[in-house]
Write a structure and sequence with these properties.
11 helices; six-stranded mixed sheet; single chain
């Protein structure tokens, strides 16, 4: 993780002089008096984070901050249990125009590298780095152990949202008893918002009773690269059936990664051979095709197919 700290941008400063460092950083800036932020975001880089990946997440956060000015604290742990006590810091700031030249927005990053020997002091240091009276959001990226995550109760309990990417975490993250499950957001699910919107809009032309009558199976095939998104989609479908009062007992739900061409293929099978529903989406081509006949005549539709980009994904997961 030392390499991760090295590749991230910023000016290295003593940990005890972070605030002073920002004063000097902004001293000659035209935004000196207008650096209001809207929120705090802690980006926690887990043990599976490579240096190039860390840079990517830093840039994603920076693009997000251009829309939502914030104070970002990036945690870069050193997981070597034998490493001596040490904590290092970098600061980074950037200003940019908002909707007009008079709308100046700024983002501030504090990058903290720390060894396990000083782990007990981390919460105090993070709290000092955050902007007071602003909501806190916590993004845990590529963590390899839920047990290690459990050590960060300060962030898990005080954050307005806790974010992780279902494509990048161990399976037990989905069954772990988070302190407040209602604030946890899976970014893999969030990415599928445009797909869920298209599916919902197409299916909304039919009554729930018409969709579920004589339904025997729901099969979602997907490309291996979007397994986490496919799992999220199938879970969303199940919840939709439950909300509509459908008994899931006689319905077989299947998901497989055998799709070679395209990204997703969803099929409803019915005991009534006259009824059908089929959806095929290709993210690379940004196209999807619907073909359905649930007893009221055949309907086809061609639409786009995409996932939210990383910064849109963050804002959707944090605020909605």
């Amino acid at each position: 993780m030392t390499e991760v700290f090295k590749v991230l941008p910023g000016l290295e400063v003593p940990v005890g002089r972070i605030a002073e460092g920002f004063v000097k950083l902004w001293d000659d800036s035209p935004a000196k008096e207008s650096r209001a932020v809207q929120l705090n975001l802690v980006l926690h880089l887990g043990s599976n984070t490579a240096p190039a990946d860390a840079e990517t997440q830093f840039q994603t956060t920076l693009r997000f901050a251009r829309r939502y000015p914030c104070r970002v604290v990036v945690l870069c742990p050193d997981f070597d249990e034998k490493a001596p006590p040490a904590m290092s810091a970098k600061i980074y700031g950037e200003c940019f125009f908002g909707k007009s030249k008079s709308d100046t927005r700024c983002v501030e990053f504090v990058v903290l590298h720390y060894t396990m020997a000083v782990r007990q002091y981390l919460e105090n240091q993070v709290s000092v780095c955050l902007s007071t009276d602003m909501p806190l959001y916590y993004w845990a990226h590529r963590f390899s152990s839920v047990k290690r995550m459990a050590d960060y109760q300060y962030l898990l309990t005080r954050s307005k949202r806790v974010l992780f990417d279902g494509a990048l975490v161990p399976p037990e993250a989905f069954t772990y008893p988070w302190p407040n499950q209602s604030i946890v957001r899976n970014l893999a699910y969030t990415r599928t918002l445009p797909l869920r919107q298209n599916l919902g809009q197409f299916l909304s032309r039919y009554t729930p009773a018409l969709i579920s009558a004589n339904l025997t199976s729901v099969t979602l095939r997907h490309h291996a690269a979007v397994a986490a998104e496919a799992s999220s989609l199938l879970g969303w479908l199940k919840k939709g059936f439950i909300r509509s009062g459908t008994d899931l007992t006689p319905i077989a739900f299947n998901v497989s990664s055998e799709l070679a061409n395209g990204s997703f293929e969803l099929q409803f099978c019915y005991a009534d051979a006259q009824k059908k529903f089929h959806w095929h989406a290709d993210l690379e081509k940004n196209e999807a095709h619907f073909d359905g006949d649930l007893g009221t005549g055949r309907t086809t539709l061609n639409v786009g197919a995409l996932l939210l980009n990383p910064e849109q994904m963050l804002s959707e997961a944090m605020f909605f």
